[in-house]
Amino acid sequence: MRDGKIVILTGAGISAESGLATFRDAGGLWEHVRLEDVATPEAFARNPDTVHAFYNMRRAQAAAAAPNAAHAALARLQAAHPDTVIVTQNVDALHERAGATVIHMHGALAGALCAACDHRWAAPPEMDTTTACPACQHPAARPDVVWFGEMPYHMETIAGHLETADLFVAIGTSGQVYPAAGFVAEARRAGARTLELNLAASDVSAAFDAHEVGPASTIVPAWVHDMLAG
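That's the NAD-dependent protein deacylase sequence above. Prediction below.
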């Protein structure tokens, strides 16, 4: 195992083989529902029942899913090489259930957020417009996920990790959503080597030093094996 800090960004592609839909691929979530109707603050203000129903469905799907070989491999890498930071765009808990520690830049389905006082707590399986905040009692619960138009979480922490990375790896990302799509450029400016592991080329593939193409459950364990054997 080579020394150095590894920063890994994961996207929806790493959870696809666990049965969780991606967003923009054929058959993805945005083919079945308009993001403007379920994934913006304006949508929640306009029709909270629809937004809650969508995230109740996603919460149930995520709870029923199991980590796949890619999640397990990254957990092994992190255990063997503690200077491994995993940042995820995903709102499921499959990394944690595989044994990894992750930074959720887009929040988590398992969390609830009070739109009135910003209190956070563990989300019940289903929420609706009557779900009250346990801190202020206001019926203003929303999913603790980052919607379009909102600032992702932990950006200063992530920027610090990118500035000190020796290797930056993106796994299962589309390269279409910023600021995450810009992480490879930030890492390269800091002098990190860069690697993309993906089912197909992303919108920012040209920015990476190296690429591996294939299903995450195949190429991620193979890469981790090589890293741990090197």
